[in-house]
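agent: user wants the structure for AraC-like DNA-binding protein from Rhodovulum adriaticum. delegating to structure tool.
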Amino acid sequence: MSLFPEIRLVPFSRLTQGGRWRVQAMRSYSAPQLLWITRGQGRITVGGVTGGYGAHNAVYIPAHTMHAFEVTGAVYGTAVIFSGMPDLELPETSHHLRIRDGAVQGEFTGLLESLQRELEGRRPAARRAVQHYAGLISVWLERQIAEAEEPVSATDSARRLAAGYAALVEKDFRSDKSVSDYAAALGVTPTHLTRVCKQTCGRTASDLLTERKISEARRLLADTSAPVKQIAGALGYGSPAYFTRVFHDRTGQAPLAFRQAI
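agent: tool returned. relaying C-alpha cells verbatim.
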C-alpha cells in the first residue's frame, strides 16, 4: 500500500494495464486528475467535447466527469491523480491546455520529478513535502488556466450544453432514462441535443449514453462476478437479451465471452 494514498503519479503505460478499453472507453473516476502528455498525439473526449492532444498538453479532468482517452504505445505522459486531498484548490471544470512556453513546460516537469522523489523515498517530512508539491501543482494549473482564457465564442453555448448532458448522463446512466428524458431535463429537443453532441464530439447523444453504459458493463464484467442479468438490470436494461445485443454490437463480443477473455 502506498504511503501517500492522497496523490499518485501514474505513467500512461500503466493506464492500459488490464486492457486498453479501460482508458479508451467512456468512463469517470472519483478523484480529479491531471494528464500531462510529453510525446505523441491523439484525441480525448471530456464532458462531451472532443479535441486533439499533442506533446506538452495538460488536460485537467474533475472528479465524476465522463471522459475517454485515446492512447497508443507512441503516447507518453503521466497522470496525476488527486485521490484524497479535499483541501487542495482545484478547478471545478475541465480544461485542456497547450503549453508552448519551454520554461513553463520545464517548471511543471520539475514539479513532477520532485514529487516523484518524495513519493518513492522515505525522507524526513516526506508527507508534508508531498502536500506542498501538490499545492504547487494546483498553483501551476491555476496560472496556466488564467493565461489561457479566451473571449467567449459562438461555440461556447454548444459546449455548455454538451457538458451539461455529459454530467447528467454520468449521474443517471444506471437508470432507464432515454435521450428524450435527458433532453427534456436540459430544455431542448432530442434532435437539437444530438446535433450539438455531433458538433462537439462527433458522437450522437445516444452514442454517448450507450458508450457510458457499456463501459460500466465492461468494468463490472471484468472486476466482479455479478451475473449478466444482474449487470443488465443495474444499468437500466429491462431485458438481458437486449443488453447482450447492445454489448455485442459495441464490443464485438457477448458479455460472457468478454469476461472469459479477460
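agent: one observation worth passing along. The chain has two domains: 7-148, 156-261.
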